[in-house]
Amino acid sequence: MKKILTVIFLACAMVFAQEGSIKPEFQAFSGALIKLKKAEKGFHKFRLRVDVAPWAFLAEGEVQAPGGDSDVLITALFDRALYAVLAYIPDKIAAGSDGEEYNVGFFDMMLYYDEEPTRIRNLSFKLLPPANDSWAQSILDDALQSGSLLGKIWSGKYEREITKASAVPIDKTKLIDMQQKRQAAKAAEAERKAQEEADRRTRERAEKAKFKSKKHDDLDCSSRKLTAKQKRRCKMNGK
Question: Using one digit for the tens of pLDDT, what is the confidence trace for 143-166?
Answer without folding.
Answer: 999 999 998 999 888 999 999 999
